[in-house]
Design goal:
heterodimer, A: mainly alpha, 2 domains, B: mainly alpha, 16 helices, 2 strands
């Protein structure tokens, strides 16, 4: 063999085709549900397809990752292959960055360009003739066409729940890093402790976020239907929340694997990938806190 | 334990392909997956092409003859979507799958299972998209660019399925692109530095980067459509403070890099083919690499040249006009280098070379009409006319698709171990060449004379040219059956191809037998 390590190429795998089927059923089912909702039809079948798809996806994730974990335990993976995983995860996170960048771009365009134009300012202020009574402002508390899009009463105060959530999430990034250091040092009790703290912080964050949404809907009339401020607010915080949820699930799986003793001081890529993802989600939150809540 | 592992490792490479359907469903082999991509793309080419036949049959004469205007719109939309996402992009990914591991001396793609998933999402995604044609209200009818509010407020109910189909195609592309980047970055044989890589790998590296950067933006824009349609948000509705033009900005932030995604791999192919048949090294390798990078960087700051007429501030018009014109510089460098590679070469004109030369000439025509369109003031005249249709078909058909044909003829002997029929292939080339120019060249004239795109009827003055265009389209479309015939004939009764069928082809792919064994480069080759 010499210096060259074999690059493991699995013979065959049925997981990809299971995944493709699962994605098809989940998204197809979701599209059917949404179409039924729009046409006020019974959506029993559609929900069924969606549910089956989701179960297939859950089965696939468990099976595919389980497959990879056992291959790793059998020692099939060379350093070069681990490097492929690391680089793959890095580029995946880059694609996520671009996904959020698109939404931040939307926020920028609406705030800086199109709302002032509708309000009569700037190069394209001629748009003011559409709704002559409209005055540009941000947060947008009076929509250009309030009959079609009722306006929100108020927005979320950044210095209560959002500030608390910022502290929670930043702290969780630190505790996760402490857990990582403990993993490298081989201190199992400390890993478990810090992983648990991280998970608790993440779940608390999600709880607060859900509470905030309920506040917005029940008391502030800040809903998806109340104009572009609410649209961007829920789009950005909603996708962020979805990512925190996924991150929490990843860390939960990593925690279970820690309990099972899967990781060693120098071989724990799943832990690192989960941590990268968590830090990424944290950075997105900081941007959100500044650009969506504060300013 | 370790010895056992090593033995299984060896067994793996002794294996040939599995038997039966599971070979294709469960495969992790880059050659199998590459073949599936290429066959899928050929099928999509014919489906998209048959839609073009419907369009050209309706436009053969003025007046409404064959189809309802709404169905015509669906054909226009689906033709574009299928050709872009179903024919051109999967063909390039198929070529990447087949050739990148062979060119850089890797045993396979870096993430073989993910590779299989990237492919198998596509048949599901396109089934979901095409089934919308049979739903109530019909399929997407808003053009392949699906501008809001046509695609939101005024869309047929099936638009939800269209949105999720786009999500699936995007996911497939991102996974495929991550695989390509990781393969090139991590799997090159020892000694193969970045600046020794074959140009095809360079172009695909940059293409994959563009894909990872902009496919998520496409996912974002269709997500906002979904929200506007089903959840009452107002991203693209000015009544709630949004802006329909915002849709166009986000779409074209994806869309412009997307058009380079559809041409860069073809640049790579002709950069492999021309040196082989000119029997000279590629002129200006380094400048080629820098030109690709420059094109990729610029592609992020030119998007609004697709929307000069929507009412942008003057500063925006000027900025996007000048950045667009700048792209002519690195593109010019590439064309200069291809021509210089041929200059004083000992040229022969086998089919891949014919396609490559046609590529250089016809792509330049498309590029020059692009410069005309880049001029904001005159674009007000050209916008949404057949001149635009002529322009992008000149860069996509003799650009992207001729690049793919060149690649297929060039590497088919390596893939199949058989030689194609050179006479028939040359016939295929010449019929395609005549057919495509007959189809797309007159579109420049009707466009400049003011014929708008995407309408099923037109004034009498455009009748003659449209008839020529339709005849050309039928010729070009039908002549692709020759291509299928050549492929089948090669596979069934082609003469055995030697290891390196071209006299002076360079690269690792020519150091392995023809047909390429099922597993190659299990041990990486040494590159000087």
């Amino acid at each position: 063999m010499g210096t060259h390590q074999e690059y493991y190429v699995p013979q065959q795998s049925h997981w990809p085709i299971v995944a493709a089927t699962g994605i098809f059923l989940t998204l197809g089912g979701l599209a059917m549900v949404l179409s039924d909702m729009r046409q006020n039809q019974d959506m029993g079948l559609s929900l069924g397809v969606f549910l089956v798809g989701s179960l297939v996806m859950a089965y696939m994730f468990a099976g595919w990752f389980g497959n990879v974990i056992s291959e790793s335990h059998e020692g099939l993976y060379s350093n070069q292959l681990t490097a492929s995983f690391r680089k793959g995860m890095g580029w995946f996170i880059f694609s996520e960055v671009m996904f959020f960048a698109a939404f931040f771009g939307v926020l920028f365009y609406v705030r800086v360009l199109s709302i002032p134009w509708i309000g009569g300012e700037g190069d394209k202020g001629m748009a003011h003739m559409l709704w002559p009574d409209f005055a540009a402002q941000w947060p947008l508390l009076v929509n250009p066409d309030p009959e079609k899009f009722p306006s929100p009463d108020a927005i979320i105060d950044p210095w209560h729940i959002p500030l608390l959530n910022t502290i929670l999430l930043v702290t969780s990034s630190f505790t996760l890093t402490f857990a990582h250091h403990a993993l490298k040092a081989g201190n199992r009790a400390k890993i478990k402790l810090f992983m648990l703290v991280t998970l608790a912080l993440g779940i608390t964050f999600l709880g607060f976020q859900a509470y905030e949404y309920m506040e917005a809907y029940n008391h502030l009339n800040l809903t998806l239907e109340t104009g572009v401020y609410a649209s961007t607010f829920f789009l950005l915080t909603g996708f962020h929340g979805a990512h925190v949820t996924v991150g929490t699930i990843i860390l939960l799986v990593v925690f279970v694997r820690v309990l099972k003793g899967h990781f060693t001081a120098d071989n724990h890529f799943a832990f690192e990938a989960g941590a990268w993802y968590w830090h990424f989600v944290d950075v997105v939150w900081l941007m959100l806190f500044m650009l969506v809540y504060v300013f | 334990m370790t010895t056992q592992v090593a033995e299984t490792g060896h067994d793996d490479h002794a294996h040939g392909p599995a038997k039966g359907i599971t070979r294709w469903l469960f495969t992790t082999n880059h050659k199998d997956i590459g073949s599936m991509y290429l066959i899928f793309s050929l099928i999509m080419l014919f489906i998209g092409g048959s839609m073009a036949f419907v369009i050209r049959a309706e436009l053969f004469q003025p007046g409404l003859q064959l189809v309802e205007p709404n169905f015509f719109n669906q054909m226009i939309t689906m033709h574009g979507l299928i050709m872009v996402f179903g024919a051109v992009m999967p063909a390039f990914v198929g070529l990447a799958n087949w050739m990148i591991p062979l060119m850089i001396g890797a045993p396979d793609m870096a993430l073989p299972r993910l590779n299989n998933l990237s492919f198998w999402i596509l048949p599901f995604a396109f089934s979901m998209m095409m089934v919308t044609l049979f739903m109530d209200g019909g399929g997407p009818n808003f053009g392949w660019t699906f501008y809001a509010p046509l695609s939101t407020t005024y869309a047929p109910p099936s638009v939800t399925f269209f949105i999720f189909a786009i999500h699936m195609m995007g996911a497939s592309s991102i996974m495929g692109a991550i695989n390509v980047v990781v393969t090139i970055v991590n799997m090159r044989a020892p000694g193969m530095g970045y600046m020794k890589m074959p140009m095809f790998c360079w172009t695909w590296l940059i293409t994959a980067f563009l894909l990872i950067a902009v496919m998520p933006v496409l996912a974002g824009v269709v997500t906002m459509m979904l929200m506007d349609i089903h959840f009452g948000t107002s991203f693209f509705d000015a009544g709630g403070g949004g802006d329909p033009v915002l849709f166009q900005h986000v779409f074209w932030f994806f869309g412009h890099p997307e058009v380079y995604i559809m041409i860069l791999p073809s640049f790579g192919v002709v950069s492999q083919v021309i040196p082989t048949f000119a029997r000279k090294k590629l002129f200006g390798y380094h400048s080629m690499v820098y030109a690709i990078i420059a094109i990729a960087v610029l592609s992020f700051v030119v998007w609004a040249h697709h929307m000069f007429t929507v009412g942008m501030p003057l500063a925006g018009e000027l900025f996007f006009m000048y950045t667009t014109m700048l792209i002519a510089v690195p593109t010019g460098v590439k064309i200069f280098n291809w021509v210089s590679t041929m200059f004083k070469g000992s040229m022969t004109f086998e089919t891949p070379m014919l396609y490559s030369i046609a590529f250089v000439i016809l792509f330049t025509i498309g590029g020059l009409s692009g410069i005309m369109l880049a001029l904001a003031p005159v674009d007000f005249v050209y916008h949404d006319t057949y001149f635009v249709v002529a322009h992008f078909h000149y860069v996509l058909v003799p650009g992207a698709i001729f690049g793919i044909f060149a690649a297929v003829y060039y590497w088919l002997p390596k893939w199949s171990g058989k030689m194609y029929d050179e006479g028939l292939a040359k016939f295929h080339f010449w019929v395609s060449f005549v057919g495509l120019n007959l189809t797309f060249f007159p579109m420049h004239f009707v466009g400049l004379a003011g014929m708008p795109r995407r309408i099923p009827d037109y004034p009498l003055q455009f009748a003659d040219f449209n008839m020529i265009v339709s005849v050309g389209a039928f010729l070009f479309g039908t002549s692709q059956l020759i291509f299928v015939f050549i492929l089948i004939k090669t596979l069934r009764s082609g003469k055995a191809a030697p290891q390196s069928p071209w006299e002076s082809a360079e690269g690792l792919e020519w150091t392995i037998p023809s047909p390429a064994p099922y597993h190659t480069f299990a041990t990486p080759p040494k590159v000087d």
